[in-house]
């Protein structure tokens, strides 16, 4: 099997030959990888033989971000505006992190939302995606359309999380307008990826906190669940075979049944510090697969290489020989994660012996 | 008092305009501003805090309740100053240096305010000296630090070390919180308290400060 075939079989719980290695490095770890391991310009995904690649970000019709300037009092030198109009301000002490600025933070009227110049995505502008998918498949790699901010997060980036949460309770019309705008854009994006033939559509919206869910089930099922379900069903109408992965950090157990019902196939990351993988697997492992499970708040930065390996092997044992777990760190690896632990993770994947 | 009871209930439902109107009505009727604060506003916020801690309500409900409290406070605060009301305590709260996440920290500030504290929100990316200087300036009781990242948790230790260097460690109650933070970590770095959520943080701070003051 090619790495792509192996991965797709694993995610569909149809057995697998090898354990795929997959993680993402922050810029400082990527730099140290090139300096100490791979050599100048080396690609860590290739070096570690990762089975998938993102096909790349879609290009909107209008790429001129100056149309968002009127939404800000000041465009600081250390601030970048992204394609959705969200501002990201960097700080000398915060590494690759930025502070977000929300263009519709002060909006009070539905008209202000409706006139917002949200980007428009079309197939015509993104015909390149098909070629990229083909190129990856020819190399034996799986293709991923990455949309990890799908509805809720994109909406809160544009409106501000606190404002949007309050709108959902006290200004429903405004919240509705924001969500409608984002759902339309995200559905268009998802369909472009799906029609271009990506193997995997990677969705996501954080709906959990460390110890509890971010909002009530009632609120979730009113606002977010129907929109996610609509988006996924449109995607699966055109591509019934596509694998939908959904990401949310934190504790989200009360939402898992909703996510399954909405049509997700794989759940990421099952944050080890928030949910017990064994328990989650036992409850939901016959209906969905998993990606992640190796804690990036605990074992990856602060554990020993042996502990990393034990974690990897223990979780693979839980999933069993049919697969269903793409074992990986639960989040981007941050600067404090030692290379010994990253190498131990990769070794553990390669050395794993099925029970 | 029925009016204050109604105010507390409306605050819990996040009815900012109505809460504000009731605060005005209570002031017009000559109700003691301290009583309006404690029985009308803070009582409602503390009930919301308790429900949040027990996962009966979630972040959105807390946000609208805090907005209603602030609406009431906007007209009540000048009157509280006039009658010389003293807050339960004073707290400086911020996200540590290198960390730009503020949602959790904002919730903590709201809960502290709802527990009767005067709060200085230092924002994000706050250096150790900025925490300490502000605490000194406002005669704070509590320094509250937040971090979302395992990368920035070490800044909590840095602030505690800096407090020691400046000979001020014993003067402040140091509280920490944030996604990767644990009780063990708090003990390891010598913080006084770790709490797992914003409501518990405010509750702990209130009882510790009141106990300290009554000692």
From TrEMBL, chain A:
It comes from the Bacteria. SUPFAM superfamilies: UROD/MetE-like. InterPro entries: Methanogen_methyltrans (IPR052024), UROD/MetE-like_sf (IPR038071), Uroporphyrinogen_deCOase (IPR000257). Coiled coil: none annotated. Residues 100-352 form the Uroporphyrinogen decarboxylase (URO-D) domain. This is Uroporphyrinogen decarboxylase (URO-D) domain-containing protein.
TrEMBL record, chain B:
InterPro entries: Cbl-bd_cap (IPR003759), Cobalamin-bd (IPR006158), Cobalamin-bd_sf (IPR036724), Met_Synthase/Corrinoid (IPR050554), Meth_synthase_dom (IPR036594). SUPFAM superfamilies: Cobalamin (vitamin B12)-binding domain (SSF52242), Methionine synthase domain (SSF47644). CDD domains: corrinoid_protein_B12-BD (cd02070). It comes from the Bacteria. The keyword Chaperone does not apply. GO terms for cellular component: cytosol. Residues 1-88 form the B12-binding N-terminal domain. The keyword Calcium does not apply. One of its GO terms (biological process) is homocysteine metabolic process. Residues 88-215 form the B12-binding domain. GO terms for molecular function: cobalamin binding; metal ion binding; methionine synthase activity. Pfam families: B12-binding, B12-binding_2. Belongs to the methylamine corrinoid protein family. PANTHER family: METHIONINE SYNTHASE (PTHR45833:SF1). This is Corrinoid protein. It comes from Lachnoclostridium phocaeense. The lineage of its organism: Bacteria, Bacillati, Bacillota, Clostridia, Lachnospirales.
């Amino acid at each position: 099997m090619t790495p792509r075939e192996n991965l797709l079989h694993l995610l569909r719980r149809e057995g697998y030959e090898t354990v795929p290695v997959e993680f993402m490095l922050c810029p400082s770890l990527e730099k140290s990888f090139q300096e100490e391991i791979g050599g100048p310009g080396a690609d860590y995904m290739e070096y570690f033989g990762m089975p998938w690649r993102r096909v790349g970000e879609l290009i909107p019709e209008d790429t001129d971000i100056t149309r968002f300037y009127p939404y800000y009092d000041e465009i600081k030198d250390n601030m970048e505006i992204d394609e959705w109009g969200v501002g990201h301000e960097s700080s000398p002490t915060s590494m690759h992190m930025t502070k977000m600025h929300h263009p519709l933070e002060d909006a009070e009227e539905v008209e202000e939302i409706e006139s917002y110049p949200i980007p428009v995505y079309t197939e015509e502008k993104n015909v390149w995606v098909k070629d990229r998918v083909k190129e990856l498949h020819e190399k034996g790699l799986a293709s991923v359309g990455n949309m990890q901010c799908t509805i809720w997060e994109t909406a809160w980036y544009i409106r501000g999380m606190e404002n949007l949460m309050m709108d959902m309770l006290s200004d429903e019309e405004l919240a509705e307008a924001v969500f409608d705008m984002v759902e339309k854009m995200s559905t268009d994006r998802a369909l472009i990826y799906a029609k271009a033939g990506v193997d995997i559509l990677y969705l996501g919206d954080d709906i959990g906190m460390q110890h509890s869910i971010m909002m009530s089930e009632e609120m979730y099922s009113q606002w977010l669940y129907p929109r996610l379900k609509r988006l996924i069903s449109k995607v699966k109408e055109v591509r019934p075979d596509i694998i939908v992965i959904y990401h949310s950090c934190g504790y989200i157990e009360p939402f898992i049944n909703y996510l399954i019902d909405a049509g997700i196939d794989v759940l990421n990351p099952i944050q080890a510090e928030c949910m017990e993988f064994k328990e989650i697997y036992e409850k939901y492992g016959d209906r969905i697969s998993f990606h992640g499970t190796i804690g990036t708040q605990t074992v990856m930065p602060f554990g020993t290489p042996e502990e990393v390996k034990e974690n990897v092997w223990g979780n693979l044992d839980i999933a069993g020989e049919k697969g269903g777990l793409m074992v990986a760190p639960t989040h981007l690896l941050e600067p404090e994660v030692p290379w010994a632990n990253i190498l131990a993770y990769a070794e553990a994947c390669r050395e794993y012996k099925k029970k | 008092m029925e009016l204050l009871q109604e105010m507390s209930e409306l605050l819990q439902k996040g009815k900012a305009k109505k809460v504000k109107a009731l605060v005005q009505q209570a002031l017009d009727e000559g109700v003691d501003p301290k009583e309006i604060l404690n029985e009308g506003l803070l009582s409602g916020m503390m009930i919301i805090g308790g429900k949040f801690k027990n996962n009966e309500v979630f972040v959105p409900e807390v946000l609208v309740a805090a907005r209603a409290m602030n609406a009431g406070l906007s007209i009540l605060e000048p009157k509280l100053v006039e009658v010389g009301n003293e807050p339960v305590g004073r707290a400086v709260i911020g996200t540590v240096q290198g960390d730009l996440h503020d949602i959790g920290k904002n919730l903590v500030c709201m809960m502290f305010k709802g527990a009767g504290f005067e709060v200085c929100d230092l924002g994000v990316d706050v250096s150790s000296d900025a925490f300490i200087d502000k605490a000194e300036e406002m005669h704070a009781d509590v320094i509250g630090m937040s971090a979302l990242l395992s990368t920035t948790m070490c800044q909590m230790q840095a602030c505690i070390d800096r407090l020691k260097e400046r000979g001020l460690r014993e003067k402040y109650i140091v509280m920490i919180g944030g996604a990767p933070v644990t009780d063990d970590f708090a003990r390891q770095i010598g913080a006084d308290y770790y709490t797992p959520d914003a409501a518990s943080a405010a509750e702990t701070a209130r009882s510790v400060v009141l106990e300290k003051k009554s000692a």
